[in-house]
Amino acid sequence: MLKVGIAGARGYTGEELIKLLIKHPNVRLTYLAATLENAIPISDVFPRLKGLIDLKIENFDAAKAADKCDLIFLALPHTVSMEVVPKFAKKNKKIVDLSADYRLKNFSVYKEWYHKAHKDKANLKKFVYGLPELYREKIRHAKFIANPGCYPTAAILGIVPALVSGLADKDSIIIDAKSGVSGAGKKVELGYIYPEVNENFKGYKFNVHQHSPEINQELSKVSLSKVNVIFCPHLLPVNRGIYETIYIKLKKALDVNKILGIYQRFYRQEPFVRVRGLGRLPELKDVVGTNFCDIGLVYDAAAKQLIVVSAIDNLVKGASGQAVQNMNIMCGFDEKAALL
Ligand SMILES: NC(=O)c1ccc[n+]([C@@H]2O[C@H](COP(=O)([O-])OP(=O)(O)OC[C@H]3O[C@@H](n4cnc5c(N)ncnc54)[C@H](OP(=O)(O)O)[C@@H]3O)[C@@H](O)[C@H]2O)c1
Known about the structure:
Blueprint: E1 2-7, H1 12-21, E2 27-34, E3 40-41, H2 42-45, E4 56-59, H3 62-68, E5 71-74, H4 81-90, E6 94-97, H5 107-114, H6 121-124, E7 127-129, H7 132-140, E8 144-146, H8 150-164, E9 174-179, H9 194-197, E10 202-203, H10 212-223, E11 230-235, E12 242-249, H11 256-266, E13 273-275, H12 284-287, E14 293-300, E15 305-312, H13 316-330
Parallel strand pairs: 1-2, 1-5, 2-4, 5-6, 6-8, 7-8, 9-11, 13-14
Antiparallel strand pairs: 3-4, 9-12, 10-11, 12-15, 14-15
Helix pairs in contact: 1-13, 7-13, 8-10
The chain binds NADP nicotinamide-adenine-dinucleotide phosphate.
């Protein structure tokens, strides 16, 4: 059994990791941590876990975590992960980092968007961007995974087939994205409290959201040229789920069935991407609580306008489910273990 720990186990992605990992056939949870004065049973934090797991959550101590685990999930805020990764790296432990600290490969881009200089340049290049649909072979041989962001996961999966097939005008891409409130983490802030969110719908950080450079980095990599998307996130009055409507101009008019065929072929072998038939758009209720990314297509031939809809659960395929999928690949387990 692989001994696994979670730092940040009291947060939203940490809770989701616990729920997935307690049913994993090849894993034993051996360490849970957050910021606590005294260790307490995890079932005191999450009563739904009573009788399912007998482990305490304690104050995070990287040295102790490294002693107790073969692999650690870092479900920590960005800028915190990079403080602790070197301690695990030195002890030769596997790491899946859910924060943004090891996703951007350019130090100055990281500083520009996360407002802090990167502290662990030595390990940055050792991290593999953990999007299995693009980098499965690299993940298989990796020790350190930078788990993708939630918005970027839905965006990249929705756009990549149109880009790599050469169909897309790469300068035309507009992402109209919506996220449930858990995407912001378990923090108390005016903009996220119930009366502000309930029965409301609002845009925020248009083109200045920290996920923009991540999306651009990955799309530029696959298209072998610079891509700059327009990225417009919105806050949905639901707990979880991401729904992105993505507008892509095509270079030339094409039969809609050919476009559908390109997407279906691209994801034919993928266990967690489902391309819907024409005229069938994804719905959040079909992906929430699952590790699936559902993709739907609409095409206007006269305008050469492709509209891709990409839907995921931000806490599962957008975070903890994808993190477990990455662990499964990295450790040689069934990729779908604990996820289907
Ligand atoms: N939420 C999402 O949909 C989502 C999706 C993709 C990626 N992510 C990323 O995943 C990471 C975790 O997100 P989240 O939504 O789970 O956040 P969260 O709900 O705010 O939880 C963060 C956890 O980290 C712990 N923590 C904070 N500072 C710490 C420190 N210095 N030492 C030890 N533990 C510390 C917190 O401890 P306490 O409980 O004691 O406060 C909490 O348990 C973030 O980097 C986020 O950007 C989140």
